[in-house]
Automatic annotation (TrEMBL):
The keyword Magnesium does not apply. InterPro entries: DNA_methylase_N6_adenine_CS, Efm5/EEF1AKMT1, Mlase_EEF1AKMT1/ZCCHC4, SAM-dependent_MTases_sf. PROSITE patterns: N6_MTASE. One of its GO terms (molecular function) is nucleic acid binding. It holds the Pfam family N6-adenineMlase. This is EFMT1 methyltransferase. It comes from Dicrurus megarhynchus. One of its GO terms (biological process) is methylation. Keywords: Cytoplasm, Methyltransferase, Transferase.
Amino acid sequence: KMDDDDDIPQLSSHTLAALQEFYLEQQQREGMKTSQGFNQYSIGSIEEDWQLSQFWYSDETALCLAKEAVLAAGKGGRIACISAPSVYQKLKEQDGEDFSVCILEYDRRFSVYGEEFFFYDYNHPLDLPENLLPHSFDIVIADPPYLSEECLQKTAETIKYLTKGKILLCTGAVMEEQAAKHLGVKMCKFIPKHSRNLANEFRCYVNYASGLD
């Protein structure tokens, strides 16, 4: 009998431990999903992808921003979320509220949301499908994926194209001047939190009288 164990690449004990921990976490997460009567819109049904510079808001922040959007949009209002999937997911949980919402997102995993999902690449800010009509949303919530003026400027083109007027922007505190310059928005007192702490201080900016002050 040949004993060819030597051919099998051995993982270091450290790597093995890390892998086991990862699988355990995955199992726990899956277990949580089933025990909670898994809701496809709940935060965590799609994990954040750091490669795409995705960072989910904490539950409280996502809920606060979703409620603000519903109020700002008004009865029968239309809400667009640009690169802000955790707010979109919270909006989907607001049962019985009278509004509609869509998500513009680079991450195609969000296509599970069907007709409400639109693939969006900020490098092509106006490369949008025909059924996204100009100035057809009561409020646009946006969280540009990168803290750069170029990214903000391009995302701003999309925001201005889609909104009837109201804008809710979430980005770094360092972007305050650029946000005012490109979108005419001012910083709110409300401080958004993320489910994992980010190094950059994050803030919300609006161009209307919001409930975030």
